[in-house]
């Protein structure tokens, strides 16, 4: 429910909430069939090439619900 947090609140609380939701999903947000494309993208030399390749891997290999979750 909350979308705003006070400056003194622990930032880890938000991360813990997100992790809890992801753990409760019926399937992994990153399908096993998409891991190869992401690993190949990660191995590229330059940061810009990695980012572009990861974007392409997600848009081309991830099912629509998984893409929307990442967005």
From TrEMBL:
GO terms for biological process: signal transduction. This is Rho-GAP domain-containing protein. Residues 1-71 form the Rho-GAP domain. It comes from Aegilops tauschii subsp. strangulata. Gene3D superfamilies: Rho GTPase activation protein (1.10.555.10). InterPro entries: Rho_GAP_Regulators, Rho_GTPase_activation_prot, RhoGAP_dom. It comes from the Eukaryota.
